[in-house]
Amino acid sequence: MDGMTGRFFRMQIPKWTFIFIAVCTAIFFLEFALPLFEWFEFVPSLAYSEPWRFVTAIFLHAGLDHLFFNMLALLMFGLYLESIIGYKRFVLLFFTAGIAGNVAYLLLAPEGTIPAVGASGAIYGIMAMLAVMRPSLIVYVGYIPMPMILAAVLWTILEFAGMFVPSSIAHEAHLAGIIIGVAYGWLRRKRRAKEKLLVVRF
Questions:
Q1: 0.90 cut: is pTM over it?
Q2: Which class for 84: exposed (0-12), middle (13-18), buried (19 or more C-beta within 10 A)?
Q3: DSSP state string for the chain
Q4: 37 Cβ partners below 8 Å, 6+ apart?
Q5: Which residue range forms the structural domain that includes residue 133?
Q6: CA angle, residues 79, 84, 87, in degrees to nearest 5
Q7: 10-54 residue pLDDT tens
Q8: Which is nearest to 67 in space by CA: 35, 122, 18, 28?
Q9: Domains of the chain: total
Q10: CB atoms within 10 A of CB 164
């Protein structure tokens, strides 16, 4: 009983959401003192010669508004998802979705020299997985309440449409994060269904 109780509390107390927010925020202020963009932003033309950029660019942000809205979304959705899937799966999702976002940008602009930064791909992965795990969870889009699954569908449509409108936003990175989140969420739900079936049979 004690072991199960300990496991329950470990799963219910998020920590990596706060760690990621703290790291992103600290790095943002370091950007004013050090040439972090030059060293760590993701540039497609440098992807193969400097592969660390696939990861490091996730923690850089282009401005205070960019940082604020990303961290706000990470706080709201990350805390909830981490508490239900555990920190190991949460960390895996964060990095996989974030890297996938940079891979998607690379595939569409393999020789591109315009840099990309931000945790948006990772955050869209978190939102998408949460939509799969808790589809009926009510969230607010603007001032309109709607089920999480409907919000995720709306975000997906907007990101897909955004790919055809010139902007400074890498919509393909967001879509890649969504795909990773949906796939991981589906696999997790499928595994949980099998585990419940085994318990019933036992």
A1: no
A2: middle
A3: -HHHHHHHHHHHS--HHHHHHHHHHHHHHHTTTS-HHHHHSB-GGGTTTSTTHHHHGGG--SSHHHHHHHHHHIIIIIHHHHHHH-HHHHHHHHHHHHHHHHHHHHHH-TT--S-B--SHHHHHHHHHHHHHHSTT-EEEETTEEEEHHHHHHHHHHHHHHHTTS--SS-HHHHHHHHHHHHHHHHHHHHHHHHHHHHHHH-
A4: 31, 60, 115, 117
A5: 2-201
A6: 70
A7: 455 889 999 999 999 999 999 999 999 999 999 999 999 999 999
A8: 28
A9: 1
A10: 7
Q: Where are the strands (E) in the chain, listed by range?
A: 138-141, 144-147
Q: What is the pLDDT of residues 127-154, one digit of tens each?
A: 999 999 999 999 988 888 999 999 999 9
First to last CA, the chain: 19
Mean pLDDT of 117-122: 96
Give the pLDDT band of residue 115 (cuts 50, 70, 90).
very high
Give the integer Cα–Cα distance in Å for 11 and 20.
Answer: 17
Structural contact between residues 59 and 119, judged by C-beta atoms closer than 8 angstroms: yes
- The CATH number assigned to the domain holding 163 equals 1.20.1540.10
99 to 7, 56, 136: CA distances (angstroms):
30, 9, 28
The CB density around residue 156, as the number of other CB atoms within 10 Å, is 18
pLDDT for 202: 53
